[in-house]
Fold:
Amino acid sequence: MPAANSGKKSIFVDGDRSPERNLRMGILLDRIREKGVLISDGAWGTLLHRKGLASGECPESWNLTRPEDVLEVARSYVEAGSDIILTNSFGGSPAKLRAYGLEQQVYEINRAAAGISRKAAGKKVLVLGSVGPTGKLVMMGEITPEELLDGFQKQVTGLADGGVDGIVVETMADPDEARLAIQAAKNGTSLEVACTFTFERTRDSGFRTIMGTGIREYLEMCREEGVDVIGANCGNGTAGMIEIVREIRRTEPDLPVLVHANAGLPVYRDGETVFPETPGEMAPLMVELVNAGANIVGGCCGTTPEHIRLIAAMIKNKIITK
Structure:
């Protein structure tokens, strides 16, 4: 992989190392304090597949090969009313990109992802760099902690240099992997860090990740690592997220909470998995999410700009008339 200081520029934005990056420090929490509730974006994969992304194709590769299509996705959420958009970098770690033979382009892919979203966002909308799980388990000997940390460091360096305002370590299940991603972001940049886990309801009506991590353990890890924004995404429809936020708030009343909910629970229909919750069904539940204690709300699987547009309208109207 070319060194981070190789001088290679992203497609849309020049490199953005320490001076400008330091100016962005603290902007996410400041914006939450200013507005109270922020609207995030929706699903990226859903829209990229509509544009022709094939099953088994690397979404992050489009940052280099089809940047205008990625830019259109980002712009569609800005136009829908998002205060925050993410980057097309969820699987941008070396461990993930290796499956496509792209592990040597980690920096370029992530820097391009950040630059594309930065161009769409302009000056008013914030950009959070997306860092997802690698799919590799240390406990199974599939990867070492050192390899994980090094990979996350390469990823967040590209995102920071491309101009993101913060990092979101998202859709995590393993606290050990999440710790390393958070440490890479905290030690390698001066940006704020959000961390979301994916929880499933258990037989005793509690919530745990597929690795067995409960909400209390997750919050303890976040506090130990100095996470700035906590929350949950994926795995549940919006109604299920309301209960998760209430449980988070019983343990952690102060830190801002971010939620990216699926558009309902998945249904297998006509040979494909669909998420059936319409914008009209999802938006009122998002108002309940805010009432439960969420500070940033947006969508995950199956959500579209149409979902975000109605969510933004309903929540902003609630804030104005409250």
Q: What stands out?
A: The chain has one domain: 18-321. The radius of gyration is 18 Å. The first strand starts at residue 38 and ends at 39.
